[in-house]
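Reviewers of the previous submission asked for a worked example of the structure-prediction workflow described in the proposal, so we include one complete record here. The input consisted solely of the amino acid sequence. No template or homolog information was supplied to the procedure at any stage.
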Amino acid sequence: MRRGGPLLVEGPVEIELEDGTTVSSDRFRVALCTCRRSRRYPWCDTSHRRRV
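From that input alone, the workflow returned the following structure tokens.
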């Protein structure tokens, strides 16, 4: 894990969000957003690379 970057997790994964909804991915590895800039949160879309 890098500071400001994604967290790589071996899949498949199922994640419960703060509002109680569940999202899942059957991919063999997923990148989880840790900066909350992603438009696809909780999945990383590399938005952490674009700093303001």
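The beta strands are 7-10, 13-16, 22-25, 29-32. We consider this example representative of the routine output the project will generate in years two and three.
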